[in-house]
Design brief:
The strands form three sheets. The chain has a four-stranded antiparallel sheet, with helices on both faces. Helices cover 27% and strands 22% of the residues. With 204 residues, it is α+β, with helices and mostly antiparallel strands.
Length: 204
């Protein structure tokens, strides 16, 4: 069965078939960062972008822990939760952020089934804002969730979502390999599941 995956160049803007906003087109996930701290005003801008992300019932279930190399003890605490494979490169990032999702609504304590989805949206906002400021973000799922919650005394109500490595990317270490991306007609359906939408080819 055709997976729908196609090869795209590492330089995304040169390979997109449809024009994209530059901040989206220039996003990538570096495994190398320059030894330059993230300026405080840029750091605040990242979280402001996350703050204005949409969420179900305006719950805003996301919370973040941020550690920088300017505070080595805190940085090492968050860094220690990463898998060994992530530690091998994330040690270069001047900034680490852990994202969490609150599992129940504040107003009635009912389960919030979109909490992780909404938190992912907030991280997406943060990531695009980072690119617009000349930064890059590498999002990681490889970390010890239990240890993270233990080290930071995270309430049971909050579920870890991801850890982000943030900084100025080392372009010299950028991979030259091409990446796989699905064709639109394998992911956008119309009428019935699996039927490619005709809107993808129409001239609206």
């Amino acid at each position: 069965m055709d997976s729908g995956l196609v090869m795209v160049d590492t330089h995304i803007l040169e390979s997109t078939r449809i024009p994209l906003d530059e901040a989206i087109g220039m996003r990538w996930s570096p495994k190398g960062f320059l030894d330059i701290p993230v300026e405080p005003e840029k750091l605040r801008s990242l979280f402001e972008a996350a703050r204005w992300s949409p969420s179900s019932r305006n719950e805003q279930p996301w919370r973040f822990i941020v550690e920088t190399k300017s505070h080595p003890e805190g940085y090492e605490r968050l860094f220690s939760t990463l898998t060994e494979s992530n530690k091998s490169w994330a040690c270069q990032a001047p900034l680490l952020i852990a994202g969490f999702a609150k599992k129940h609504f504040d107003r009635d304590n009912m389960p919030n089934r979109t909490a992780m989805y909404d938190t992912g949206g907030a991280v997406a906002n943060l990531t695009v804002q980072a690119v617009s400021l000349g930064l890059q973000v590498h999002q990681m799922g490889g970390y010890d969730m239990r240890l993270l919650k233990e080290l930071y005394n995270v309430p049971e109500e909050f579920e870890p979502a991801a850890i982000l490595a943030v900084g100025y990317a080392d372009e010299g270490g950028r991979s030259s390999r091409v990446r796989l991306r699905r064709e639109l007609n394998t992911m956008v359906y119309e009428g019935v599941w699996g039927r490619a939408s005709e809107l993808l080819h129409s001239k609206l």
